[in-house]
Specification:
Blueprint (H helix, E strand, L loop, with lengths): L8 H10 L2 E3 L3 E7 L6 E5 L8 H18 L6 E7 L8 H13 L5
Parallel strand pairs: 3-4
Antiparallel strand pairs: 1-2, 2-4
Length: 109
Amino acid sequence: MAAYRLHTGDEFSTVFAFRRVVRGRVFSLHYRPNALPSARIGFVVAKKLARQAVQRNLIKRIAREAFRLRRAQLPCCDLVLRLSASPKTASRAEMRAEVEALFDRLPQG
């Protein structure tokens, strides 16, 4: 849903400028508290790390679904999920598990 997404470059920039991040093996989750009633998310999946559009879309689809299911339990933050390493060896289940683990490591409150 559009209300739960980051859209503009400025929104992404403010999250990156806050300089808080939780790192995993394949992903980094940047976060910044917001004054909204719910969390919002954006994605950065570089062509350098995932060459094929099919692979980039799969990564975003997996992450969007994990966010949709966990949104109610997440703190009110703007989130940017960034691909930080090539996911060649990671399966879909491993990527999903890592995204959920990063959500669990977010500071509450």
